[in-house]
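Lecture 7 notes: from sequence to structure.

We start with a single chain of 256 residues. Read the sequence below before looking at the structure.
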Amino acid sequence: MIVIAQVSDIHVDGEPRSVDRTRAVLRYLEELPYDLAAVLVTGDIADHGTADEYAVVRELLNSRHPLLVCPGNHDDRAAFRAGLLGGTEGATARPDAPVNQVLRGEGFVVALCDSSVPGKDEGFLEDETLEWLDGVLDATPREVPVLVAFHHPPVPLHTPYVDGIRQFGEERLAALAERHPHLTAFLAGHAHTAAATTFAGRPLLVAPGVVSALRLPWENPGPDSPHVHLDLPPALAFHVLGEDGRLTTHYRTVTV
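Now the structure, written as tokens:
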């Protein structure tokens, strides 16, 4: 059994609230009696993309489990790369290049793609990223499941607050998926709400937010009500790959 935790949208801004909620989630994962195959943190790591925020994040995201992070629309690629990766991801010397990473575990592969667009809120996978992902999938034996993760979901999720800034150009990703049957599922964040749907014939599993939760349209009491819940607890997802290759996702809330 392979267990991968997904944490998303920690939005560390230097204030105690975001730091405390992120620390509570990481502490929960550290205290598990089971060694996780990976912890994925899928974007919106620093709320303003500053070096000071990434310095705080670097201290917070200290785990005994293998841990990978990708940028979201609130992140700055150059500051993200310098503050969290130290240039060790082996990409390119260009500070504004997409931050793409791969984890090859025992019996699985995770490809963490950068869907951020510098200076914009919506998401898009650059040709450079799609070519990289195609290479990762080509290099992975067909019997090994590959999970593809990014920040922006490539479909609407009935959340008007974020659907306008979802991932676009998704037909290119769908065409790539069609060529690789061992691409098992897509993982995303951004929506600040747990969701499960499909994309390109695969599960698309969206992690809930840590810093806040999104109010869905049928939960909103009126047009002047805030879209964001600040009083609900932080939450995360556990993705479980069974020996039969079946993927199951569980969602958990964490006490701060």
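The chain has a mean pLDDT of 95. Keep this in mind for problem set 3.
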